[in-house]
Amino acid sequence: MLGLKQYCIFFTLILCVSASQAADFAENLYTGYKEVLYQIKIIDNESGQKSTIGSGFIINGQGLAVTNYHVVSDFILYPDKNRIEVEDIDGKVSQASLVNFDVINDLALIRIQGDTLRSKYLPIATQLPTQGSTIYSLGNPHDLGMIVVPGTYNGLKQNSFYQKIHFTGSVNSGMSGGPVVNESGEAMGVNVATAGNQLGFLVPLNKLKALINKNKTIEIGDYKKIIAEQLQQNQQQLIAELTAVQWPKTPLGLADVPDAMADFITCWGGSNADDKEAQYLAVRKSCSLDQTIYISRRMQTGRVAANFEWYSSDKLNSFRFYNMIDEQMRMMTYQDGRSKEDFSEYQCQRDVMKNVNNVKFKSAICVKNYKEFDGLFDVLFVSATLDQSNASLVSLFYLSGISQASYKAFTPVFMDAISWQ
């Protein structure tokens, strides 16, 4: 039986051997596949300079390569202003064309033109590895050259509407779109995002295969139409999933309000109870989807947010109290910093009504449309209950990148989820 000292030495040796094996594999991997790795550049036609860089990899003998949507988004949105260039490990630059993309899962397929086509390409895995396996991220971080980063496969991110692989390893800027390979040297994911501190996220195998299997080239004139269609389909699925079940409730003041509407919705709370000079008590609950969909540098969409704020006061008379509530409703306009170049002004409709639980409230629903993507809207709904003279529940939801049918389906479900205790 090993003593503690002998065990520690034995365990250290195992770690050293494992680290050495990982380093050897990484070196062999880089040597074997460096020819299929590319730096992807978006070039501004007027200046001739790169505006975006990322990584990519060839997956077949016809020069088809994978990268992220966000790496080539400037070209997709402004194809007359930009072009796609790729640079191989030897510094040779070639042109590339867009084949297809998946804006929801941040993937794109490009085809590399000219004499850069080679017989070597990166095979696609048939399945994900077992949890805890060592996997290897490849890419070009910070424009410093191609590297291999070993890390750990920790399965799919839990409680997430958008599937991502949880990767313990460094995914740095510029590595976006690069492959992540298993111990057989097969691509099983694509670099997409980092949360720092060795916390990375990858697009999983099934999303990559789905895009490859479409086997269709999108015409340049259809790019924005396809983005709008993909966003509408995604938000329709999201809203259908949110409204398919009865939401659990939790007390807030004298009301019962929705708790997390799904396992991928996260809720937080707070209050001003420690403010001894406050003229009213404010208790807050905020719930939201923790991910958005990247469209461009100035636009992310796919948001779902719901806020509930309970206000009560024994210091304000009813007139002053409801003036304060009116002010709170005006202040609850969702501040998303969205450009007027991309969106119309909000158009609002106000009403006073009762829901199925006989809760009386005044409400405002405000809608603005996306100028470049037909059929997409941002929707803000705010309401305040009117049943008490010195207490009120102010509720809000915000949905972005959604169709008219989807927000009309969500609104009555949200309104009717509020009740008195």
From TrEMBL:
Q: Which Pfam families match?
A: Trypsin_2
Entry annotated with the keyword Signal: yes
What keywords sit in the KW lines?
A: Signal
GO molecular function (one): serine-type endopeptidase activity
Instruction: Determine if tRNA-binding is one of this entry's keywords.
Output: no
Question: A GO term (biological process) for this protein?
Answer: proteolysis
- Record's signal peptide: 1-22
Q: What is this protein called?
A: Peptidase
Q: Which organism is it from?
A: Glaciecola nitratireducens (strain JCM 12485 / KCTC 12276 / FR1064)
